[in-house]
């Protein structure tokens, strides 16, 4: 083992997977005069700070630090409320300091919560100050004209003038389990809707979500390592049970309110809210079975809604980022599955086809729409793992990003910030473009990893499953085949095979320990067509079939020892790893299963019912796909293979009951296994010392299980 590979686990943990120090949360002023973003001071500093890149009319630019949490808070340090910690868990936010901000329409002022207090920063002068308002403050947002700030505190939506005067509650909860202005659990966890209130373009009204969690069953999350602490009560809507009751109200600034009316019984999920000067407020509401959605325009005076469009799908209607929206001239922008492809529609026209798989809408301009897309099923070149930025207009489709890699963009006025990650360089570059010409770059302070990933992007098996194969840097052909480590996520929304270097760092580290590492994105993961993603409908176990198919399809091209095959994964990947050694011990000889979903009836409504239906009407589907049911266990085969279960004890997403139930079932069945409980750890990958040692423990377990000795250099 090289010195670099030995030091990688510590570096990986301290840098939070090499994300610290990189620019994030970019916003571009509509006049192109400034770009605001967050970035920590170094690649190991967790505290995010507020920065601006000023851009002059002649294209000159300069960065300024606007707000440093250490300077603002002084010796007191940062303290987070329980509600803010829960919000960050839903957002998978592990950094500290200023982790989010919002600006007015002209991007002259930024507001943010820091240590539960409300802060404002003038983006021109750089002056920052705290406003004396009730806390703890969550999700503050200025009105478009910058004169007022709305924020949530203790479940109430409050208003305060930008100078700190006149603070008052606009919408106060009537009961303890009611909140105004916050997203409910499934919206934040599964729908990618983290907000609960929206300003009108003229700053005269707000749309406010009212969430009543009283119908939702309570779970108790306790950390046995701290018996002196009271368990946390969590309103967790597991599959087949009641969701929170979500309603939407139009508020004027004096507190007058009008309810927004739609068929909430048929379409209970409030999935998207979009409100710009281009048209009336726009809602996307979804049926409980997720096979139907309505695009609704809202009358701002009466709260009545009118149907703008409806979509249906026999599997499910996928929710995508940036959709729906209005064009400036009032046309509906949406992403939809049509003709076997995921396409962009503007008004009545489909503007893309089967050569692209549209992933999200990045920006809607007067004459075009900026989208993120990968190669579709009809593309001549699959471009394995590549994601590009395209400009779409009635005249056609133009690729904005160049070269292999993973690209995205943020646009405002004449400026576009194009982010690019490739397999040839570490991290992500942020290029500032004006009229297609680079005028500046945002600096990144992210750490340079101690090893270099060498992924070979290819396809494996009869289905041409996208794969990344990573061999040790020291490997020579005469050494013969290597033990194999499958390293998938393998489930919906979790693409691992990407044309970028950093996502493969951990896989390369495992390769340096003496493994041929294979990452395979089978059916169900983001792929070339809706059919690829929806093939797992009622059949999540197909994910395992594709891991086997990919492994065997690669064996004749890479040095894979099929007599020594292990698999590791976290969350869905943990489910997949445990299922692999239980149901296919003829292929897999050891597994590390982190935070696995084992009893699928215990996972949340919006996710689980999308793929498996209602457990009350389709119990056999849940029984077959779960690992701990009688039917699920009946699928387990001989011989018994080594299995390490890892679970955070305070995980409120995939609760530790999943791991414990599988452990109990294995014990009852006489199947040896190991269980590693992580005190104080949630569903997010643990950080610092725990994360570092967790990698080392996994390698030790895999070596022992496969009969391997430690490699010495």
How large is the radius of gyration?
A: 25 Å
Task: Give the distance, in angstroms, between the N- and C-terminal Cα atoms.
Answer: 5 Å
Q: Which sequence of strands runs across the widest sheet?
A: 37-38-40-39-41-42-43-44
Into which percentage range does the β-strand content fall? 25-35%
**Helix share bin:** 10-25%
- Report the principal-axis shape: globular
Low-confidence stretches: none
Biggest β-sheet description: 8 strands, mixed
Mean pLDDT comes to 95
Quickly give the structural class: alpha+beta
What is the number of beta strands?
44
| Count of individual helical segments | 13
List the helices and strands and how they pair.
Elements (H helix, E strand, L loop, with lengths): L2 H12 L9 E5 L5 E7 L6 E9 L5 E7 L1 H5 L8 H9 L5 E2 L4 E2 L5 E6 L2 E6 L5 E4 L6 E5 L5 E6 L2 E6 L6 E4 L6 E3 L4 H6 L6 E3 L5 E8 L5 E4 L10 E4 L9 E8 L4 E3 L9 E6 L7 E5 L5 E7 L6 E8 L12 E2 L5 E7 L2 E6 L2 E2 L5 E9 L4 E7 L12 E6 L2 E4 L6 E7 L2 E7 L7 E6 L2 E6 L13 E5 L4 E6 L11 E5 L18 H8 L3 E5 L9 H5 L7 H13 L5 E11 L1 H12 L6 E5 L10 H8 L6 H7 L4 H5 L8 E6 L8 H12 L5 E5 L9 H19 L7
Parallel strand pairs: 3-5, 39-40, 39-41, 41-42, 42-43, 43-44
Antiparallel strand pairs: 1-2, 2-3, 3-4, 6-7, 7-8, 8-9, 10-11, 11-12, 12-13, 14-16, 15-16, 16-19, 17-18, 19-20, 21-22, 22-23, 23-24, 25-26, 26-27, 27-28, 29-30, 30-31, 31-32, 33-34, 34-35, 35-36, 37-38, 38-40
Helix pairs in contact: 1-13
């Amino acid at each position: 083992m090289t010195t670099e590979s030995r030091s990688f686990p510590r570096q990986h943990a301290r840098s939070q997977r090499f994300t610290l120090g990189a620019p994030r949360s970019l916003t571009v002023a509509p006049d192109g005069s400034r770009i605001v973003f967050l970035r920590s001071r170094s690649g190991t500093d967790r505290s995010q700070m507020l920065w601006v890149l000023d851009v002059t009319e002649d294209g000159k630019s300069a960065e300024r630090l606007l707000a440093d949490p250490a300077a603002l808070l002084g010796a007191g340090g940062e303290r987070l409320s329980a509600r803010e910690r829960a919000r960050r868990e839903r957002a998978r936010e592990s950094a500290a300091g200023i982790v989010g901000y919002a600006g007015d329409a002209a991007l002259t002022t930024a507001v943010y919560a820091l240590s539960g207090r409300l802060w404002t920063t003038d983006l021109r002068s750089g002056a920052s100050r705290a406003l004396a308002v009730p806390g703890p403050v969550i999700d503050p947002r200025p009105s478009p004209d910058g004169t007022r700030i709305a924020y949530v505190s203790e479940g109430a939506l409050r208003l305060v003038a930008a100078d700190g005067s006149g603070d008052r509650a606009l919408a106060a909860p009537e009961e303890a389990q009611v909140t105004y202005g916050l997203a409910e659990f499934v919206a934040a966890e599964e729908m990618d809707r983290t907000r609960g209130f929206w300003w009108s373009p003229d700053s005269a009204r707000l749309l406010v979500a009212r969430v009543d969690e009283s119908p939702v069953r309570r779970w108790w999350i306790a950390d046995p390592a701290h018996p002196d602490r009271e368990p946390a009560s969590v309103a967790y809507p597991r599959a087949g049970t009641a969701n929170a009751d979500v309603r939407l109200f139009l508020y004027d600034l004096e507190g007058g309110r009008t309810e927004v009316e739609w068929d909430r019984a048929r379409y209970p999920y409030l999935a998207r809210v979009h409100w710009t000067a281009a048209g009336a407020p726009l809602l996307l509401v979804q049926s409980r079975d997720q096979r139907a959605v309505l695009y609704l325009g809202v009358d701002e005076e009466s709260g009545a809604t009118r149907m703008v469009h409806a979509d249906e799908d026999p599997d499910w209607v996928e929710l995508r980022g940036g959709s729906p929206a209005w064009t400036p001239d009032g046309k509906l922008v949406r992403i939809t599955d049509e003709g076997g492809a995921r396409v962009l529609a503007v008004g009545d026209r489909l503007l893309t086809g089967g050569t692209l798989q549209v992933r999200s809408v990045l920006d809607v301009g007067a004459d075009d729409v900026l989208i993120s897309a990968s190669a579709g099923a009809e593309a001549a070149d699959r471009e394995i793992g590549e994601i590009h930025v395209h400009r779409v207009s009635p005249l056609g489709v133009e690729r904005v990003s160049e070269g292999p890699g993973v690209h995205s963009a943020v646009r405002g006025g004449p400026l576009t910030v194009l982010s690019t990650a490739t397999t040839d360089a570490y991290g992500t570059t942020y290029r500032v473009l004006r009229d297609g010409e680079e005028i500046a770059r945002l600096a990144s302070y992210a750490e340079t990893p101690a090893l270099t990933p060498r992924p070979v992007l290819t396809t494996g098996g009869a289905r041409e499953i996208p794969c990344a194969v990573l061999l040790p840097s020291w490997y020579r052909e005469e050494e013969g085949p290597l033990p194999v480590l499958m390293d998938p996520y393998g489930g919906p929304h979790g693409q691992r095979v990407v044309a970028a270097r950093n996502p493969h760092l951990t896989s390369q580290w495992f390769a340096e320990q003496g493994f041929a590492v294979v990452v395979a994105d089978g059916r169900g993961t983001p792929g070339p067509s809706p059919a690829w993603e929806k093939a797992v409908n009622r059949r999540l176990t197909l994910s395992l079939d594709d891991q086997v198919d990919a492994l065997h399809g690669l064996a004749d091209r890479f040095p894979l020892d099929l007599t020594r095959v292990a698999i590791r994964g976290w969350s869905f990947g943990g489910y997949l790893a445990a299922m692999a050694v239980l149901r296919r011990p003829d292929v897999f000889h050891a597994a590390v299963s982190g935070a696995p979903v084992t009893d699928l009836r215990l996972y949340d409504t919006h996710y689980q019912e999308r793929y498996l239906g209602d457990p009350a009407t389709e119990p056999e589907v849940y029984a077959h796909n779960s690992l701990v049911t009688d039917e699920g266990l009946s699928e387990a085969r001989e011989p018994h293979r080594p299995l390490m279960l890892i679970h955070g004890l305070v995980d409120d997403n995939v609760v530790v009951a999943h791991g414990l139930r599988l452990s109990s079932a294995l014990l009852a069945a006489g199947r040896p296994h190991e269980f590693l409980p992580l005190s104080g750890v949630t569903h997010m990958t643990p950080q610092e010392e725990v994360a570092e040692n967790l990698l080392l423990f996994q390698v030790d377990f895999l070596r022992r299980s496969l009969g391997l000795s430690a490699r010495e250099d």
